[in-house]
Every structure is written in structure tokens, then in C-alpha cells.
Design a protein that fits this description.
Protein name: NAD(+) diphosphatase
Cofactor: Mg(2+); Zn(2+)
Number of domains: 2
Number of strands: 17
Number of helices: 6
Radius of gyration: 22 Å
Strand order of the largest sheet: 3-1-5-4
Largest sheet: 4 strands, mixed
EC number: 3.6.1.22
Family: Belongs to the Nudix hydrolase family. NudC subfamily.
Order of helices and strands: HEEEEEEHHEEEEEEHEEEHEEH
Keywords: Hydrolase, Magnesium, Metal-binding, NAD
Structural class: alpha+beta
Length: about 325
């Protein structure tokens, strides 16, 4: 790392900006109904009036061309299955999700020239979904993934089972209860306080794909300290003026992306972390604007997709 600086000190050169709207996967309208998760009678009523979202093993649901997640009526004559999870309710309609196993292309997959529902994941469908559907599908994907990975008690190894409408797993052997886990990660847009921003790429990404920098929060670390550490580790520069921008659930499989902006000196050499960052460059505001106007690609780089908070951050800075 080049010069040392206190990342919490304001440099006086920071350009303040805010997200232009909530990130695509941060939108939601349903009431999660946490108080009734242990009330069997209330859950039975929500099941009887419910709508069911099927999510396949790749985290995809059937989505209409207009951006609506297709649901089916819950089987009212059947008891609530253990694998069904309550996502919430709206206008006394309960919304539930379950895992289904389908062929690789999905039971309703269609050709590119046909019109109809497609099995899509949140990266594909997220920006197109309504606020209600974005919240429902984001919750469903993350919660079902947690169930898939939490079948056994980490204390005694006994198989666990779902309770409280899918929001808890219980171990009958050691009586432990386990809850859905969220792993916090920071994502930071580093700019120079004027008209340049740092874009970087990981070696595993598709050719030309660039984004802002991100990393997972470590045990005992604050969000702001993680921002400063990750930037120093990934591109070798010091930052100041760390400011919170917003957050977005990122259920791949269970992250929460917490967005920040920070300022760095463009005269400092960018030193990409070996094996983690393939390349990093200062990019001008007009280049980012051009890429946004051209559907995400211009000047030899491609920006992150519209479902990500990174896209929202770059859009806000560019504006």
C-alpha cells in the first residue's frame, strides 16, 4: 500500500452522491408476518388463502415477460408440507415457496423467439420484477438455499427439521434451534472526488467485465474497517471519506451487500492483488456514462448487471 491515511477522516474533496433508488433486490412490499410463524392456526389460514412460488435447484422461478413471478394456488386440501416456507402476506394472501427439481432447462423453458414464461434467476429477472415479486423471490431463493445446506445439526450431527414456517430448523437430539444466516459483505465505489472511478475485474469473470470492489467482513471487524482493508488488499491504495450508500440482499447463497463510497488519490499506483484482481483502472465519468447508455458495454469494458447494487452505485455516481 502507498501512503497511510485514516479512512474515517474527511479529505474535503469528496463529492457527495446518493443512490437514485433502491437496488433491484432491496424492494419488497409484503409483511413478513414474523409474529405468526409459531401459530399453527394462523399459518393454516395463510396456507388456505395462499399462493405458491416454485424455485428450482438453480434458484430460478417461472417469470412472465412482464416481470411477474408466476404462482399457483396452494393445495388447500393438503396439510402444509414441511418444505414450504412462508415469505409473508399481502392483503391477507399468504405467499409461500418450495423447492422443486426440474430438468436443466426447466419445464417451461422456451426458445429465444417465443413469447411466454421463462425459468430465470434473480440476476436475469431481478431488474424486471415488481417490488412485490422482487422481495418474494429474493427471500425465497435465500431461505430455500439455507434449508438445502442446513439439514444436519452442527452441534451433534443429527438431522434437523424445519419449524416456524420454515424460519427455524430444530434438532430433536440436542434441542438446538438454528436460524437462517446472512454473511455481510462490503462493496465500495472508489473515486477521486472529481471525475474518475476505479473499476476492477476478477480473473474468473467473463472477458471485459469490470465492477467496483467488494469483500466479506471478517470476525471482529466493523463495516468501515472492512472497506479500508479490502481496498488496500485488492488494489494497494489508501482511502478516506468512507460513506454509506445503501444495501442489498444478495442470496448467492446468503450475502448482504453493504454499499459504500470512498475517496482515493488517482496519483497512487493501483496494485492488483495477485490471484484475486486481474486488472484495475481509473475510468472517467463520461466513459461510465457511455457504458450505461449503451446497455452496459463501451470503451472495452462491461459494467455489472442491473440486478446488482454495484450497477446502482455506478449509475448514481455517473449521474
Amino acid at each position: 500500500m502507498n501512503r497511510q491515511a485514516d479512512p474515517f477522516v474527511t479529505s474535503g474533496v469528496a463529492e457527495h452522491f446518493a443512490l437514485l433508488g433502491p437496488p433491484a433486490l432491496s424492494r419488497s412490499t409484503v409483511d413478513r408476518r414474523e409474529p405468526v410463524r409459531g401459530d399453527d392456526a394462523a399459518l393454516d389460514r395463510l396456507w388456505a388463502s395462499g399462493r405458491l412460488i416454485d424455485v428450482d435447484q438453480q434458484g430460478r422461478a417461472s417469470v412472465s415477460p412482464s416481470g411477474t413471478v408466476l404462482t399457483s394456488a396452494t393445495p388447500r386440501d393438503e396439510p402444509r408440507p414441511e418444505g414450504a416456507v412462508l415469505l409473508g402476506a399481502e392483503d391477507e394472501v399468504g405467499y409461500w415457496a418450495r423447492r422443486v427439481v426440474v430438468e436443466a432447462d426447466g419445464p417451461e423453458e422456451i426458445g429465444p423467439q417465443e413469447i411466454g414464461p421463462r425459468w430465470q434467476d434473480l440476476r436475469q429477472a431481478g431488474p424486471l420484477l415488481t417490488d412485490t415479486d422482487a422481495g418474494l423471490l429474493t427471500t425465497a431463493v435465500g431461505l430455500l438455499a439455507w434449508h438445502d445446506q442446513s439439514g444436519f445439526c452442527p452441534f451433534c450431527g443429527t438431522r434437523t427439521h424445519a419449524v416456524r414456517a420454515g424460519w427455524t430448523r430444530h434438532c430433536d437430539e440436542c434441542r438446538q434451534e438454528h436460524y437462517p444466516r446472512t454473511d455481510p459483505a462490503v462493496i465500495c465505489l472508489v473515486h477521486d472526488g472529481a471525475d474518475q472511478v476505479v473499476l476492477a475485474r476478477q480473473p474468473t469473470w467473463p472477458p471485459g467485465r469490470y465492477s467496483v470492489l467488494a469483500g466479506f467482513v471478517e470476525m471482529g471487524e466493523s463495516l468501515e474497517a472492512c472497506v479500508a482493508r479490502e481496498i488496500a488488499e485488492e488494489i494497494g491504495v489508501s482511502i478516506s471519506d468512507i460513506r454509506y450508500l445503501g444495501s442489498q440482499p444478495w442470496p448467492f447463497p446468503r450475502s448482504l451487500m453493504v454499499g459504500f463510497a470512498a475517496v482515493a488519490d488517482p496519483s497512487d499506483e493501483l496494485i492488483p492483488a495477485d490471484g484475486e484482481i486481474e486488472a484495475a483502472h481509473w475510468v472517467s465519468r463520461h466513459q461510465v456514462r457511455d457504458a450505461l447508455a449503451e446497455g452496459g458495454t463501451a470503451h472495452g469494458f462491461t459494467l455489472p448487471g442491473a440486478a446488482s447494487i454495484a450497477h446502482r452505485m455506478l449509475e448514481a455516481w455517473a449521474s
